[in-house]
Amino acid sequence: MTDSAITKIVIVGGGTAGWMAAASLAHVLDADRISISLIESENIGTVGVGEATIPPILKFNELLGIGEREFMRATKATFKLGIEFSNWGGVGQKYIHPFGDFGTDIEGIPMHQFWLSQRQRANYQYSLFDFSLMVKACQLRRFKHPEYRNPKSVYAGIHYAYHFDAGLYALYLRQFAERKGVIRYEGIVKDVQLDPESGNVKSVILDAQRKIDGELFVDCSGFRGLLIEGALKTGYNYWSEWLPMDRAFAVASEKVEDPIPYTKAIAHEAGWQWRIPLQHRNGNGCVYSSHFLSDDKALEKLLSGLDSRPLAEPKQLCFKTGHRRKFWNKNVVALGLAAGFMEPLESTSISLIQTGLARLMTLMPDKRFSETTKSLYNRRTIQEYEHIRDFLILHYVASKRNDSLFWKHIRGLKLPYSLKEKMALYEDAGRIMQYEAGLFTPSSWLAVLHGQGIVPKSYDPLTLRFPVEDVQKRLDAMRNLIARAASAMPMHIDSLQ
Ligand SMILES: Cc1cc2nc3c(=O)[nH]c(=O)nc-3n(C[C@H](O)[C@H](O)[C@H](O)COP(=O)(O)OP(=O)(O)OC[C@H]3O[C@@H](n4cnc5c(N)ncnc54)[C@H](O)[C@@H]3O)c2cc1C
């Protein structure tokens, strides 16, 4: 066992993925036994976007023992309670996909089933979104930390994430990782040497003086996938037939108002725009399909949609939606953009880096690189990607928009079976089953399905054993509690200060 234990890990790339990998591996592995090196190039730089996260990021920081105040100060972060989707169900419509649940289950039956049955049985008029504390807090621009120590409190159910400057986060993690002994090399990887027998990556070459050997390689080199694709020719599964977005323009703009505790995602005729409030500025971007919108029009759309002065020249990013055929091939594990990419509509990329790292730590290999371990890693990761893919496609296909060639194209999409089944179950009786290895809970699915106007034909018959008057009282009590609790939360800006 000791002979085959890994002693040298090499991470190629120092963007968010590279430094998340370096910091967490250095934190959990024995620094006296394992050397961790990271290579990055300031000349190449990083992708320079990626500012909105989802709640699992809290766990990542917690694992590393990073305090929230220090982290937020260092990364200019704000709190995020959800995403507001505008013009998705139809032009002029709006809803918030909140983190956390809608109301509370009643005797094991999801709350929304009672809401559905009450609509049909008693013409119940209140909005389902009145049952989400996070939606109410977003509308009032309020924020409060969860009261974990008081599980009966309505505030125990608060879920949140952050908006932050990803470049500053990478820098923060770099300092953390270097303190833990990670060695950073500045330079461009010019060549990759493979072991002629195993086909594993043996070393990366920077220049005549610097050849860096390794046993386990983590490819965080961004879209180019220097090791996983450049050296190992792993191949890529393309998903543009379902998610046709392939470009974005991004630009930061001046802060004009107190930051709001949610991301904005505004659909347009061939894609959508994001607005992400940080402490000191807004992040903005226009995501589009180049088949349906020209670069010039997309840029115009981005700039005309800003609510303040841009702080730099907009940057264009081109991407291919999909993932590597294998995320772990030979002795190379790809993370971040080197592993795959799905548009940032639900802020999932950084979270996928985190789940990839968690899976790698659970399945930490030795030099034998067991095929069983790799195939389990790959199977689970593919499942996770596919479930996010389905969730993203839902935002498009649940829309009633038909006002442009792009939206007409969406109407004709042939859906993956997994999504078709999920939508059919909901349309039939409002049921939402949790995917195995799904990042998004049934509450998230409910927010989008309902928010975009899909109305189930029926509801769970188990609700029928509860008298209508009784349900009415319980729903009203929940709704009132949430309204009061939201109004009593501090303003987001005060929580930040
Ligand atoms: C338009 C857009 C919006 C996004 N928004 C979000 C969001 O809101 N939320 C979210 O979670 N994610 C988002 N993402 C994804 C997020 O930006 C990435 O997942 C994250 O930044 C990780 O990137 P990375 O580290 O994999 O790659 P990069 O940032 O590209 O880093 C690659 C690294 O590899 C190095 N490198 C490359 N080639 C070489 C070489 N030959 N030699 C040496 N070094 C090399 C580079 O110098 C760099 O350090 C978005 C992505 C895009 C495209």
TrEMBL record:
PANTHER family xref list: FAD-BINDING PROTEIN, FLAVIN-DEPENDENT TRYPTOPHAN HALOGENASE
EC identifiers of the protein: 1.14.19.-
UniProt xrefs under InterPro entries: FAD/NAD-bd_sf, Flavin-dep_Halogenase_NPB, Flavin_halogenase, Trp_halogen
Organism encoding this protein: Hirschia litorea
Record carries keyword Lipid metabolism: no
Keywords from the named record: Oxidoreductase
Record keyword Cell division present: no
A single GO molecular function term of this UniProt record: oxidoreductase activity
UniProt name for this protein: Tryptophan halogenase family protein
